[in-house]
Design goal:
This protein has about 140 residues and is an alpha+beta fold. Helix content is about 40%, strand content about 20%. The two termini are about 25 Å apart. GO terms for molecular function: hydrolase activity, acting on carbon-nitrogen (but not peptide) bonds, in cyclic amides.
Amino acid sequence: MRLLTSARKQLASQFRDSHAHIRGNGADDRSHAQRAYAVDGVTLTKAVTDVRIENDVVTVVFDPASVHADRETWDTMINVFDNLAEWTGAPIAFTNDESKALRMAAETVDAVYTDGSSGGSLTKAEIYRMGTGKDLPADER
C-alpha cells in the first residue's frame, strides 16, 4: 500500500509540474498578448492548489484568488480554455513513455475550482486524440 501511495504522489507531482500545454485555437476575441500569457501556463500553474489521483481520476483544483483574480477576470482574461482538462491533461497527450505511464494511472482528468464548480473533464482517450490525432492504443484501453 505504501508503494502505491508513493507512486500516486509521484504521478500527481508529474501532472502538477508539467510545463507541457496545448495551445488554444484562436477562435475567441481575446487579444494575442492575453492568449500568449495565459497559454504560457504560468498563471494557470500558479492557480493550481491541489492535484490528486483517486479511483483512476486525476483531479486538478484551481483557485483564481491564488493569482489575485476574481472569477470574472479568470474567465475573461486568464483562462483561455473552455475545458481546463485540455491543459491539465497535456502530460498524457503524447506518445512518449512518460505520457504512457501517466495514462496507465488514470482514466479521466477533471479540473475543478475550489468552490466545487467544474472546470471541465476529459477521458484519457479524448486527451490522447487531441495530442496525437489518433485513437488510444488498444493496450491502453
